[in-house]
Predict the 3D structure of the following.
Amino acid sequence: MTRFDPGTLRSRRLAERPGDLPSQLFIHGGRAPTRLSVVCFEPTGIEERELGGAQELEPLLSRGVPLWVRLQGLADTTMIRTVLDTLGVPPQVQAPLLEHPQRPRVDSIGDVVLAVLHRFSFSETPDRLIGEQVGFLLLPDLLISLEEVPSAGSFPQLTQWLSYLDPAPTRDDLDDILHFLIDELLDGFFPLLEHLAELLEQLEEAALLRPKPRLLSRTYQTRSSLRDIRGQVWPLRHQIMVLLRQNQRLLGPDALHGFHDMEQRVVLIFEACELLRHQCDSVTDAYMASISNRMNQVMKTLTIVSTIFAPLTFIAGIYGMNFINMPELSLKYGYFIILILMGLVALLQSFWLWRRGWFQDWTMFGR
């Protein structure tokens, strides 16, 4: 009999979804259609079955073999609730699985282990993320997974690996499969972080060579994506630590060791997010430094022009005065002499400024 402390497994919804809505939801005009499949852990090996409804589960339950029930898509909530009721899932546990988006969590009470995470992927551009909720429920002889968005197969790599195991998985391996599933979701963060690191390197190089205002908006979007990843991962560390201290009877020694490694993986992901957030600051600093250098280059160019033309303007102003007694005005070649003098002054000033390095472009950064 499962006993629940008040509020232990209550629904903890997020104020808004981390990332944009999954693109698959837009294709179907709402929530993705619901699919039901089962992996039966027979003594001779695993057996996958596609089911049409909850009524097809009863013969499998009567056989007494451990099951991995896989639900994909949240369109038919009535069917999902019927399936959960047929499997004997307490109503208190169903709300965190069906209501979305939920906060990331790993909870344990009695003979129930609940885990809710978010699977992230890139949209059309690598600086924008989309998120979809994935929930897991571990009960005696039963593992349930509920994915918000269906795919070609539910965790196909893990399912294929299970089919090759010899001896075949048993009911004692369901806890290990649970932590393998969570590990697969957490491992999916590392390629995302690697892509974001490459993106930030490209943005930093562009900020130095070709600074444009759009670079800042992409940097802020990348920072927002990192904040979403960090917010979905960091709460799990404390919850996993609590789970390890509870000595949950459904979790064997191998599963507990796997959850301990999972805690270290969460720390690695969080530290990687912090490093990349600092790199976002570096991109912003590089952009501001580049803009400042370009502004200095513009001001330097204007200063050079003003410095060269200042004495020329002075000479032109002197001989533009309308005094009667100006001996140079009566010279036959005075006009050409003054032009030659002004040219020599401009050349001498340009040579002097060049020797002092004023004509060097400070925005080239070693190119």
Summary: DSSP finds ten helices and seven strands in the chain. The two ends are 73 Å apart (CA to CA).
